[in-house]
Write a structure and sequence with these properties.
globular, Heat Shock Protein 90, single chain, alpha+beta, six-stranded antiparallel β-sheet, 155 residues
Protein backbone atom coordinates (compact mmCIF):
# COMPACT_ATOMS: atom_id res chain seq x y z
CA UNK A 1 0.00 0.00 0.00
CA UNK A 2 1.49 3.37 -0.93
CA UNK A 3 0.84 6.25 1.41
CA UNK A 4 1.28 9.84 0.28
CA UNK A 5 2.52 12.46 2.74
CA UNK A 6 2.94 15.82 0.98
CA UNK A 7 5.31 18.54 2.07
CA UNK A 8 4.30 21.97 0.87
CA UNK A 9 6.20 25.17 0.15
CA UNK A 10 4.28 28.40 -0.29
CA UNK A 11 5.43 31.36 -2.40
CA UNK A 12 4.04 34.45 -0.69
CA UNK A 13 6.28 36.90 -2.57
CA UNK A 14 3.56 39.32 -3.71
CA UNK A 15 0.28 40.14 -2.07
CA UNK A 16 -2.64 39.83 -4.47
CA UNK A 17 -0.97 37.32 -6.79
CA UNK A 18 -2.16 33.72 -6.88
CA UNK A 19 -0.61 31.54 -4.23
CA UNK A 20 1.88 29.06 -5.66
CA UNK A 21 2.01 25.72 -3.88
CA UNK A 22 4.66 23.15 -4.72
CA UNK A 23 4.01 19.65 -3.40
CA UNK A 24 6.63 16.94 -3.12
CA UNK A 25 5.09 13.53 -2.50
CA UNK A 26 7.05 11.09 -0.39
CA UNK A 27 5.89 7.57 -1.02
CA UNK A 28 5.91 5.31 1.99
CA UNK A 29 5.34 1.59 1.85
CA UNK A 30 3.91 -0.41 4.75
CA UNK A 31 4.13 -4.18 5.18
CA UNK A 32 2.49 -5.95 8.11
CA UNK A 33 2.12 -9.56 9.12
CA UNK A 34 1.07 -11.57 12.19
CA UNK A 35 2.57 -14.91 13.19
CA UNK A 36 1.55 -17.46 15.79
CA UNK A 37 3.78 -17.46 18.85
CA UNK A 38 5.13 -20.95 18.26
CA UNK A 39 5.55 -20.55 14.51
CA UNK A 40 9.16 -21.60 13.88
CA UNK A 41 8.72 -20.72 10.18
CA UNK A 42 7.98 -17.08 11.05
CA UNK A 43 11.54 -15.75 10.52
CA UNK A 44 11.68 -17.32 7.04
CA UNK A 45 8.22 -15.99 6.14
CA UNK A 46 9.18 -12.54 7.43
CA UNK A 47 12.31 -12.53 5.24
CA UNK A 48 10.24 -13.56 2.22
CA UNK A 49 7.80 -10.72 2.88
CA UNK A 50 10.62 -8.21 2.37
CA UNK A 51 10.73 -9.03 -1.34
CA UNK A 52 7.65 -6.79 -1.66
CA UNK A 53 9.63 -3.66 -0.75
CA UNK A 54 10.46 -1.51 -3.76
CA UNK A 55 13.58 0.51 -4.52
CA UNK A 56 15.69 -0.65 -1.59
CA UNK A 57 19.46 -0.72 -2.23
CA UNK A 58 20.99 -4.21 -2.04
CA UNK A 59 23.18 -3.35 0.97
CA UNK A 60 20.22 -1.99 2.91
CA UNK A 61 18.09 -5.00 1.95
CA UNK A 62 20.86 -7.28 3.28
CA UNK A 63 20.84 -5.46 6.64
CA UNK A 64 17.04 -5.45 6.71
CA UNK A 65 16.88 -9.22 6.18
CA UNK A 66 19.30 -9.75 9.09
CA UNK A 67 17.39 -7.41 11.41
CA UNK A 68 13.91 -8.74 10.60
CA UNK A 69 15.05 -12.35 10.86
CA UNK A 70 16.73 -11.74 14.21
CA UNK A 71 13.87 -9.78 15.78
CA UNK A 72 11.16 -12.20 14.67
CA UNK A 73 13.25 -15.22 15.75
CA UNK A 74 13.81 -13.63 19.17
CA UNK A 75 10.08 -13.06 19.61
CA UNK A 76 9.29 -16.67 18.64
CA UNK A 77 12.02 -18.00 20.93
CA UNK A 78 11.67 -15.78 24.00
CA UNK A 79 8.14 -14.35 24.31
CA UNK A 80 6.10 -16.02 27.04
CA UNK A 81 3.30 -18.20 25.64
CA UNK A 82 -0.08 -16.49 25.85
CA UNK A 83 -3.39 -18.08 24.85
CA UNK A 84 -4.20 -16.66 21.41
CA UNK A 85 -0.97 -14.63 21.45
CA UNK A 86 0.75 -13.53 18.30
CA UNK A 87 3.86 -11.82 17.02
CA UNK A 88 3.37 -8.75 14.87
CA UNK A 89 5.82 -7.44 12.29
CA UNK A 90 5.65 -3.95 10.81
CA UNK A 91 8.07 -2.75 8.13
CA UNK A 92 7.60 0.84 7.06
CA UNK A 93 9.68 2.28 4.22
CA UNK A 94 9.81 6.02 4.71
CA UNK A 95 11.64 8.78 2.89
CA UNK A 96 15.10 8.32 4.48
CA UNK A 97 14.87 5.04 6.32
CA UNK A 98 13.10 1.77 6.93
CA UNK A 99 11.38 1.43 10.29
CA UNK A 100 10.90 -2.08 11.71
CA UNK A 101 8.78 -3.11 14.72
CA UNK A 102 8.31 -6.58 16.14
CA UNK A 103 5.68 -6.88 18.88
CA UNK A 104 5.04 -9.86 21.15
CA UNK A 105 3.04 -10.48 24.34
CA UNK A 106 6.11 -10.24 26.62
CA UNK A 107 6.60 -7.51 29.22
CA UNK A 108 10.00 -6.24 28.08
CA UNK A 109 13.49 -7.54 28.82
CA UNK A 110 17.06 -6.56 29.54
CA UNK A 111 18.98 -6.61 26.24
CA UNK A 112 22.36 -7.25 27.91
CA UNK A 113 23.78 -10.55 26.59
CA UNK A 114 24.23 -13.26 29.22
CA UNK A 115 27.86 -14.50 28.93
CA UNK A 116 26.90 -17.84 30.51
CA UNK A 117 24.55 -18.67 27.62
CA UNK A 118 25.30 -19.47 24.02
CA UNK A 119 24.11 -16.89 21.51
CA UNK A 120 22.62 -13.61 22.62
CA UNK A 121 24.45 -11.54 20.02
CA UNK A 122 21.55 -10.84 17.69
CA UNK A 123 20.58 -7.52 19.26
CA UNK A 124 24.22 -6.43 19.08
CA UNK A 125 23.99 -6.99 15.33
CA UNK A 126 20.76 -4.99 15.20
CA UNK A 127 22.46 -2.16 17.12
CA UNK A 128 25.37 -2.20 14.71
CA UNK A 129 23.36 -1.90 11.48
CA UNK A 130 20.52 0.32 12.74
CA UNK A 131 20.64 4.11 12.96
CA UNK A 132 18.54 3.81 16.13
CA UNK A 133 16.82 1.00 17.99
CA UNK A 134 15.02 0.38 21.23
CA UNK A 135 12.64 -1.66 23.33
CA UNK A 136 9.19 -0.57 24.50
CA UNK A 137 7.77 -2.68 27.34
CA UNK A 138 4.45 -2.61 29.13
CA UNK A 139 1.48 -4.85 28.38
CA UNK A 140 3.53 -6.19 25.47
CA UNK A 141 7.04 -5.81 24.09
CA UNK A 142 7.99 -3.96 20.94
CA UNK A 143 11.53 -4.01 19.63
CA UNK A 144 12.03 -1.41 16.93
CA UNK A 145 14.82 -0.09 14.75
CA UNK A 146 15.44 2.37 11.94
CA UNK A 147 17.75 1.47 9.06
CA UNK A 148 19.03 4.35 6.92
CA UNK A 149 18.32 4.01 3.21
CA UNK A 150 21.40 5.97 2.18
CA UNK A 151 24.05 3.64 3.59
CA UNK A 152 24.52 0.12 4.86
CA UNK A 153 26.90 -1.03 7.56
CA UNK A 154 29.43 -3.82 7.28
CA UNK A 155 28.53 -6.49 9.83
Amino acid sequence: MALIRPECWFDLAEVGKPLTVMVEAATAQRLERRFGQGDVTAPRAARAMLADLRDVPAEVRRDLVIVVSELVANAVRHAPPVQGGSIGLLVLRRRGDIHVEVRDPGRGFDPTPDPSREGGLGLLTVARVARAWGIKGGDDTTVWCDLPLDAATEV
